[in-house]
Amino acid sequence: MNIAIIGAGISGVSLAFYLNEYRKSGKDINITVFEAADVAGGCIRSVSQDGYLVESGPNGVLTSKSHFTELFAAAGLGDMLERSSELTHRRYIQLHGKLNLAPAGPIAALTTPLLPFGSKLRVLKEPFIHANTATADESVYDFAKRRLGKGMADNLISTLIGGIYAGDAKKLSLKSAFPWMYKLEKDYGGLFKGMIGRMKALKAEREKSGEPRKRREPSRLISSATGMQGLVSALAEKCDGVSFRYNCPVSKLEKSGEQYILHTKDGEFHADKVISCCNAHDSASLFASLDDELSKAFAQVQFAPIFICGMGFDKSAVGHPLDGFGYLVAPAENSSTLGTLFSSALYHGRAPEGKALVTSITVGDRGTNRELIKEDDATLTRRAYEAAKSVLQLKAEPETCLTFRTEHAIPQYYLGHEAIVSTIEARATALGGLYIGGNTTSGISVADCVLRSKAVAEALVL
Ligand SMILES: Cc1cc2nc3c(=O)[nH]c(=O)nc-3n(C[C@H](O)[C@H](O)[C@H](O)COP(=O)(O)OP(=O)(O)OC[C@H]3O[C@@H](n4cnc5c(N)ncnc54)[C@H](O)[C@@H]3O)c2cc1C
């Protein structure tokens, strides 16, 4: 059976790895990966310049996502994984022009200066708010406001959404973007009750299995000495027996009988099964000649555009101690920056000795920011520097700048996303032999992509 994977980002590469394991254990399959770029990684790119290492996409994956570490352990790459520093759980939020420590839990939320007194009292009412019984899709913002109050929704939840989706909490669907939170209310009646309920359930499971109680360490990030891209490249190299075709975009996809025909500049390729691991924007073009409804469904998915600006300074030029993960900027600040990572404080080797690297994530799908992506690199870089200048007490211009712009960076699971996903899945099933991987249907994080690939591999061969 010929299997074609389109796209060699983390989704395509992890899928190739899982399928290759089945091949090695006796499944009669040939696996070919088609990738438009000349390397694996997709939106994961780690670039070195002047001794700095800057990420164009994710800076790491949380250690709590065990299937990600298990994947690398299974590939014999466990030793490559590097944990971020203990400072990871120390995060700041910029509000009213200054940085305040973000509350690390519900108790800390009651003492944070990020919430006015009345908003703190409102948070305490959460356990007494009735669960929503309406069936209409609810936005993340409306959910947060309904359960926790406006102060929490504006100052904390909307800020966090900028850090995760580079998006707008008022547009994102709770059910699609944060299904676990939606389920907490559905299953337990609320967030506080849900957390207690989940703790009790875990305790009961532990007692049943006789497992001793473990002290839960705060989650950290994982990357490697060569950054996130080093991990994806190493995983691709472990897929011995898989054919990776780089610089080989699939320009058109057709079906002839039970087989798919992939058109590339190197000729036609026939496959029994095809898995698309490219983003929704590219999938819309890929499927245009195959299925109009499928193509249109992908085209409905909106993206947050992102401009990344990695700025390297002499440590003496940075007044802030950079003693944490970084900071997120509250929407009320009306900034072009959504957040800034203290990259050199997170991992070793991100900046030369005596230097500091901060990486600003700018533009996004927030307010009128989306329009800023039309500006040139120099203008956006200046904006990133000016936005960081007073909060980080910068005394000099950066000595190195590395920038990346991505128009279709992070898919936004807007209200109604569930219907788009249903159409995509129904069309793929109707066509037969077609599977959808990647970050369009079931989560945008690297760990979500890996989980999706694992499930697709299972569905394909079992
Ligand atoms: C700036 C940024 C920051 C992020 N931060 C985090 C984070 O901190 N933590 C986290 O967990 N996640 C983060 N994410 C999200 C996460 O990185 C992505 O969801 C994930 O990497 C997507 O991987 P993918 O393989 O599905 O898609 P992609 O990485 O987009 O890869 C798709 C691949 O398909 C190829 N392709 C497209 N069309 C074709 C074609 N026709 N033929 C052949 N090849 C094609 C592309 O060239 C590309 O290589 C971030 C994303 C961005 C952009």
Q: Any overview of this molecule?
A:
It is a single chain. This protein is an alpha/beta fold. Among the domains are: 2-42 and 230-277 and 437-461, FAD/NAD(P)-binding domain (3-Layer(bba) Sandwich); 107-209, protoporphyrinogen ix oxidase, domain 3 (Orthogonal Bundle), CATH 1.10.3110.10. It is built from 16 helices and 20 strands. It has helices spanning 10-24, 66-74, 106-109, 117-124, 140-148, 150-164, 174-177, 179-188, 191-209, 227-237, 280-286, 292-299, 343-346, 377-389, 417-431, 446-461; strands spanning 2-6, 30-34, 46-49, 52-55, 61-62, 82-83, 91-95, 98-101, 221-223, 243-245, 252-256, 259-264, 267-271, 273-276, 302-314, 326-329, 337-341, 355-363, 400-412, 434-436. The chain has a seven-stranded mixed beta sheet with strand order 8-7-16-17-18-15-19. A five-stranded parallel beta sheet has the order 10-2-1-14-20. The longest helix has 19 residues, at 191-209. It binds flavin-adenine dinucleotide. Flavin-adenine dinucleotide binds at residues 6-12, 34-37, 42-44, 57-59, 61, 249-250, 277-279, 282, 286, 306, 308, 406, 409-410, 438-439, 444-447, 449.
